[in-house]
Design brief:
By secondary structure, this protein is an alpha/beta fold. The protein contains 18 helices and eleven strands. The strands form two sheets. Strands 7-6-5-8-9-11-10 form a seven-stranded mixed β-sheet, sandwiched between helices. A four-stranded mixed β-sheet has the order 2-1-3-4. Helix 11 links the parallel strand 6 and strand 7. Helix 3 runs antiparallel to helix 17. The relative contact order is 0.13.
Length: about 425
């Protein structure tokens, strides 16, 4: 028997779910009634299967070199078991790799390149995202405050969780950097009475949110601008600022400058909430076994992961003090499974929206991306951190007495009790 096929058979037999493989010549290997079925149309896909290079195998699926059939939870259980080791360890490099990554990070995040990268992802199709996001189209980690919450409830809980952490008050000027489809922007305005400004690089999101602002009669108090964060006016600092699911697109080399910019955008004593995906490993900007390359190619070009310790270092270098850190990793796993399940339930509609060869590739990529990321968060290969930051301390002795000009109370009680 072919040695590579023998290796594949051994791998498939050891998987926690039953898997059948159909070879390019029509030969079938495995049980007759499997949970997952691979149909290889190219021999290269067999090699990637034998290696356990699941990210490369994902590219084979997107490009039609292999078909993957079965429930996505079963597919991901098989994918996790196929890996030869931790994808976190597989992505670790030495000092030269780190130097090259830093150079690339600087190069790839100009204003023009970032705009094109955001357009690639977020302007795919508003209707497609609406198929599997909650009604507010919140495209970031939800907060399952109670286990029985559905996705829509958990997203509203997340929006409120952020507003509570920021201690938003009526009349305050609030800035949402990377405001998406306006979920947080509108929640803060409608429930906390703030004067809210949001920015995005997505033309689709910009048009969608401005339409919502008009429909809700919020034109005098809420605005959405098509603008890069680096071009924000600093002459009138805001009281509070949030950046949700944004800093992953900034680039590791740019993070100190990014946090310094946020600091300049907030009044002394104000608060900044940074909510974003973080790396599980200290030294990897992506996951190994081809998983990072898959995300870069098909989903988030220019995206880079940073360990929470490096985030805190960059935040400090940017002139901010981290005052509260919360890891929401399992919340994001559940969020992603909710998105994945919703997309799987609406596949015929998605096919109608994403037409042609490119549309079909995009749909296959998103199916793997949502389920694959859910698996990655479950295994702890990536995480999600909310970091609440304040402008630097001034040496005053009354910080614990809740003075009116300092927003942070230095007691967590306010996050969890009704006021």
């Amino acid at each position: 028997m072919n040695p590579m096929l023998s290796a594949v058979e051994r791998k498939l037999h050891a998987l926690p779910v039953t898997v059948q493989l159909e070879l390019p010549d029509g030969t079938v290997v495995g049980p007759a009634d499997p949970k997952v079925r691979f149909v290889a149309r190219d021999k290269s896909a067999l090699a990637h299967l034998a290696e356990g290079a699941v990210g490369v195998l994902g590219q084979d699926y997107v490009e039609g070199r292999i078909d993957i059939q079965g429930n996505m939870r079963d597919v991901m259980a098989a994918a996790a078991a196929l890996l030869p080791g931790s994808p976190v360890d597989a992505a670790r490099g030495g000092w030269l790799t780190d130097l090259v990554r830093k150079v690339i990070s600087v190069w790839r995040h100009s204003v023009e390149r970032d705009a094109k990268q955001i357009e690639f992802h977020y302007d795919l199709s508003d209707e497609f995202y609406a198929l599997w996001l909650d009604p507010r189209r919140v495209y970031s980690c939800a907060y399952y405050r109670t286990p029985e919450m559905n996705l829509a409830q958990a997203q509203e809980a997340k929006l409120d969780h952020i507003c509570r952490k920021l201690r938003l008050k009526a009349g305050e000027r609030f800035l949402d950097v990377g405001a998406g489809w306006g979920g947080l922007l509108l929640w803060a305005a409608e429930n906390y009475g703030v004067d809210a400004t949001g920015i995005t690089l997505s033309r689709n999101q910009h048009a969608y949110v401005n339409k919502l602002i008009q429909e809700k009669g919020l034109s005098g108090r809420v605005r959405m601008e098509l603008l890069d964060y680096r071009k924000l006016d600093e002459s009138q600092p805001y009281d509070k600022l949030a950046s949700v699911g944004m800093f992953e697109h900034v680039g590791r080399a740019q993070l100190p400058g990014y946090f310094a910019k946020l600091r300049r955008l907030v009044k002394p004593g104000g608060l900044i909430m940074n909510h974003g995906i973080t790396a599980a490993g200290l030294y990897n900007a992506e996951l190994g076994s081809g998983m990072g390359e898959f995300i870069e190619k098909y989903i988030f070009p220019g995206g880079e992961l940073t360990h929470i310790s490096s985030v805190m270092e960059a935040m400090t270098n940017g002139g901010l003090e981290g005052v509260d850190v919360e890891n929401l990793r399992p919340h994001y796993a559940r969020t992603l499974w909710a998105w994945s399940d919703a997309l799987e339930a609406r596949l015929p509609d998605a096919v109608q929206l994403l037409q042609g060869d490119q549309g079909a590739r995009s749909l296959r990529a998103y199916r793997l991306y949502l389920a694959g990321c859910a698996m990655a968060f479950e295994h702890g290969w990536i995480a999600l951190h909310q970091v609440l930051a304040a402008t630097p301390a001034t040496g005053r002795p009354d910080e614990l007495d809740n003075p009116a000009d300092l927003a942070y109370p230095w007691r967590r009680t306010y996050m969890y009790t009704d006021t």
